[in-house]
User: What shape does this take?
Amino acid sequence: MRTRLLLLLTLISAFSFGQTNFKVQVPNGMNLLMGNYNPADYTQNSPITAPSAILTGIQNGVQADSLFQILLKLESFENRNTGSDTLSATTGIGAARNWIESKFQDYSARNENRLQTGFFQFDINVCNMTRHKNVMAILPGTDTSNKSFIIIEGHFDSRCETACDVLCDAPGMEDNASGTALVMELARVMSQYSFPQTIVFMPTTGEEQGLYGALSFAIFAQQNNLQIEAVLNNDVIGGIICGNTASPPGCPFPDHIDSTQTRLYSHGGFNSVSKMLARFIKMEYEDEVLPNAAVPMNLSIMSAEDRTGRGGDHIPFRFRGYPAMRFTSANEHGDAGVTDPNYHDRQHTTADILGVDTDGDNQIDSFYVDFNYLSRNAVINGTAAAVLALGPEQPSFTAAPVPNGIQVQVTDPNNYGTYRLVVRTNSPDYDTLIIFQGTQATIDPGVGGAMFVSLAAVDGNQLESLPNEEISLLSVGIEEESDGPSMPTLLQNRPNPFDDATIIGFNAPERYTGKGAIIRITDVNGKVLSEIPKAVESGINEILYQHGFGVEGVFFYTLIINEEVIDTKKMVFAY
Ligand SMILES: [Zn+2]
Assistant: This one.
């Protein structure tokens, strides 16, 4: 009985967020995070101020060889399990985090000691270890009137087949030395520049057992009203070889190579701030990097928050209202299904190594992490974070359909004067970007039917803000009808066809608020595959439907409210 009680208590503590004793162990760290400091104390001598020069500097500054050297060193710690040794100077998670922090200090010393480095400490029992530390480097912004900051993060802990095996060889190169190296390389490069907004580089711990490092900082941020504008989480971001069991939606076949695609995962559909962040990252890549990119990258805005059945460090931030997303390579070597006797992939095993020596000279010459791919992903992160930190603040706006387009009205205390309308129809991606001047405009969106629009401010340097939350023109249009709509309307799923997950929406009039709706999924024979409940809200309602990977064909979805069938539509699975 006692054992069971203990197990129960352990489970309760895991789910009731029993973290305590949060401590920012960075000089003046708490004030930096709150925006309560004198920027003059962190000012750079003769900083480069032209945003275009800073963005070019980031693109040229990120070095594949520098990433390689970081990975080599991270591999040498043998085991970075959250419960592993903290006393050794050479192996275990303690040595690893101290080395990462010492590298942050080096970067700082090379740039007038502006980067403030240290740890974020918290207490909770994970793998019999009670005290844990994320590593932190804070680059203080030059303008404290905007107190929000940007986080670039990736977990540095690793694991083998057994979650708390602290003695195995757990190199964790793809998962997630790749993300750790990316965060460190951006700290090195970006700390050579000055940004109005503060940027926080944070390798996290405890991810493999329950996102503990990210969760602790997210709770701490919420408790202290810290303003986080965006969280860019990098997890499994350097591999390009498809395993036999890549997490769905996965890659097409084993050993398939893909070094030009990256998946951007984020929560929600219509009006999700996290999905707006993912779209913004893609826009900035296409605006600022792609025109001069030696190897063009294709960024996929994924419907779901993560791969099927998986999760990551962005989730605890999103859960507390902070915009947060995850970068993951298109091809993953495994789905972490290590308990399956037939699992032969590398993820979450002792085989997650940097590469192999094929000619017997004791030097790795065939790599599982592609350093050029990893450096391209670092540039994508760095560019988005830099534009956020350099660019204008968000305006607010209203939009309504008129006979010749969309009537847009902007409210902008900063009077930037130039704005960008982001138009989206039937996919998680945006369809059209339209620039206009002035705070009032009638705009032809170039597409018809139901659409979602959002708005970004554009400043004198042609940088744009994070776009605002979306407005659904369908609901605006219906609300403007004289008597209001009489019935809910089922919308076409987006995207369609789709491979793994799709968003099914319906528009409901005010008087349906609070009623119980069901989305029923059926196959061509009428067999019910799933029923998803949803409490009706006025306007656009959405559910995410994940059918699992590898099914093809035509299926149907039906909207039922209070046992009354409203409508049925067809959707197509493809992969
Ligand atoms: Zn991971």
User: Anything to note?
Assistant: The two ends are 49 Å apart (CA to CA).
